[in-house]
Amino acid sequence: MKKNNLLFCALFMLMACKNNTEKTSEVLSLEDRVKAIHERVITLDTHCDINVKNFTDSINYTQNLSSQVNLPKMKVGGLDVAWFIVYTGQDTLTDEGYKMAYENAMSKFNAIHKLVSDIAPNDIELATTSDDVRRIYKSGKKVAMIGIENGYPVGLDIKNVERFYNLGARYMSLSHNGHSQLSDSNTGEADDVWLHNGLSDLGKEVIKEMNRLGMMIDVSHPSKESMRQMIQLSKAPIIASHSSARALCNHSRNLDDEQLEWMKQNGGVVQTVAFKSYLNTEKVEKRSAIETKLAKEILDSMQVQWIDRKDMRKISAEERETYYEYYDLMVSIRKQKLEKIENLPPNVDVTDFVDHIDYLVKKMGLKHVGISSDFDGGGGIEGWSDASETFNVTLELVKRGYTESEIEMLWSGNLLRVLDEVEAVAKTIN
Fold first, then answer.
1. Hey, which end of the chain has fewer CB within 10 Å, N or C?
2. d(C-alpha 71, C-alpha 67), whole Å
3. CB 266 within 8 A of CB 239
């Protein structure tokens, strides 16, 4: 009887090992299949903010800095194309404000050019067309592209649009958080106070100038009425460089179903953004109290006062930059502390992100949807917290049943199509 029991146990263990081996084989098979797809498609992220202090001879993107995007992280995660952002926070609509904004924008243009020309020319190259992207990708280098977040640095001189274009900018939003001289911002929803009721007269001229040059119009930050007017004026498709679906997360930075229909009819593309506050409000609210309390404690230990996001516009651009340096350090410390907390509510993750992609695809069709992170500008979710985890997005897309050709369209094909169409329209104007 004892011998029979031993024989039964041995058979049971053998079957269990076989089942575990089969399961491991299935997992490896999926991982290998996704890795192959991930390596074959061009992965493109339309929104990566930068800090010029990370573009010097001693501190730069050849190093694995704490930034969410840099060359080592791009290589690990298989992120091929990063749109580096020339971002300027909204300030006063005065000559002094415009001058400071222009200087800030130029410092970021110069930083990006220094990276590709002086710091790491063998590792990354600037692209301004879809042909450039494909050529550089085939060479084995990473690809840099440039977008402008906020048309504020244009000031009152429309010639600056062409100056920025000549420096490599291939998309621009006309406002950010706060109304600019060109366009109302989505932030006007909070108090229903508007400056232009859409676009200013100069803003309308800027739209025409962008069409003439072949620069994509970005509607991620402008107001809904501004977007409507942009579509009405533009002869070319537009983009939302980093927005998600308002039906799934009711935030003014997201696009509602009516706006999605406008985008579809326009032929444009919405670059779904991996920014947790724009993906799942319920999850964010459950964790925010814990995360904010920790953040305040950590910042307090640095003798830095916590600033709510809504109050950022009340401080100067220089103060914002200093604050975010401390904020980035706080985030890395907080992450370690959060890992030690038991029964922590789940974070917004890659599944929430792809839920938005699914929704946008259903509403607009596959060819109108793309991908963005808003890394180093507040973006990042569980599973895609920085460029080194880019593979996880492709993995989730495969799990949802997207084919390789569909994944290629989502990652880069759709955005590059719009860029091509915008350039084609420019040729007819010129």
1. N
2. 10
3. no
Instruction: Give the chain's mean pLDDT.
Output: 92
> Quick check: pTM over 0.85?
yes
Work out the number of other CB atoms within 10 angstroms of the CB of residue 365: 11
Tokens of 200: 């200013």
One-letter identity of residue 397: L
Question: Distance between CA 244 and CA 372 in Å, rounded?
Answer: 10
Confidence of residue 423 (pLDDT cuts 50, 70, 90): very high
Model pLDDT, residue 22: 45
Cβ count within 10 A of residue 125: 19
pLDDT at 3: 42
Instruction: Determine the 3-state secondary structure of 245 from DSSP.
Output: strand
Please state the separation of Cα 236 from the chain's center in Å: 22
Q: Which residues of 310-328 are buried (b: 16+ CB within 10 A; e: fewer)?
A: eebeeeeeeebeebbeebe
DSSP conformation letters of 309-357:
GGGGGGS-HHHHHHHHHHHHHHHHHHHHHHTT-TTPPPPPBHHHHHHHH
- The β-bridge partners of 169 are 146
Residues 428, 418, 404, CA angle at the centre, nearest 5°? 145
